Amino acid sequence: MNNAIIISMLSLGLIACGGSGSEESKAPEAAVSLPLESSNEPAGIAALQIDEQFNLSTKYSLNLDVDLGLGEVRAYLNVCQKKISAQRADYNNCVYRGPLVNSMLEKQLTLSREDIELIAEIWFYDSSTQPLLYSWEYNSGEQQQLFIMR
């Protein structure tokens, strides 16, 4: 009998407390600040002054020029970003991969960042020949960016 009374009292207590109200809580109104002085000067992005020669593009061309002078030796070229901690290519961030024809290649790439360092690794299908390693960095003094591998 005592258990029935306790269960009844708990049930009434839960019903009285509610649990899902339909009241909406209002968010506080945002404060609006008005400029103290009115001026005809442009503000925000309209205030930017950009040199007419600057086209707002970060893209640039990089010419790959490979001529190993080895004739019909079969080789494969990987051009990748440099790993941060080593003088090796980061194979997860490559900008070009492809075979060399007669140990030569001329290719133009479009890159979007100037702050990267590239590593080129030339692997030979003949396993007795050691791979060749070349590195390249953006040179702001050069009009045409060129990665030469000889």
Describe this structure as you would to a colleague.
The protein has 150 residues and is mainly β. 11% of the residues lie in helices and 37% in strands. The strands form 2 sheets. Strands 3-2-5-6 form a 4-stranded antiparallel β-sheet, with no helix packed on it. Strands 4-1-7 form a 3-stranded mixed β-sheet, with no helix packed on it. The radius of gyration is 34 Å and the shape is flat. The N and C termini lie far apart (98 Å).
Secondary-structure topology with pairs:
Layout: H1 2-17, E1 60-67, E2 75-82, E3 89-100, E4 104-111, E5 117-124, E6 132-137, E7 145-149
Parallel strand pairs: 1-7
Antiparallel strand pairs: 1-4, 2-3, 2-5, 5-6
3D shape: flat
Task: Kindly name the structural category.
Answer: mainly beta
Radius of gyration: 34 Å
Order of helices and strands: HEEEEEEE
Widest beta sheet: strand line-up: 3-2-5-6
The low-pLDDT segments are none
The CA-CA distance between the termini, in Å, is: 98 Å
User: Count of helical segments?
Assistant: 1
Mean pLDDT: 83
* Proportion of residues in extended strands: 35-45%
The number of distinct β-strands equals: 7
Report the sheet with the most strands, covering strand number, pairing sense and barrel closure: 4 strands, antiparallel
Q: Could you estimate the helical fraction of the residues in percent?
A: 10-25%
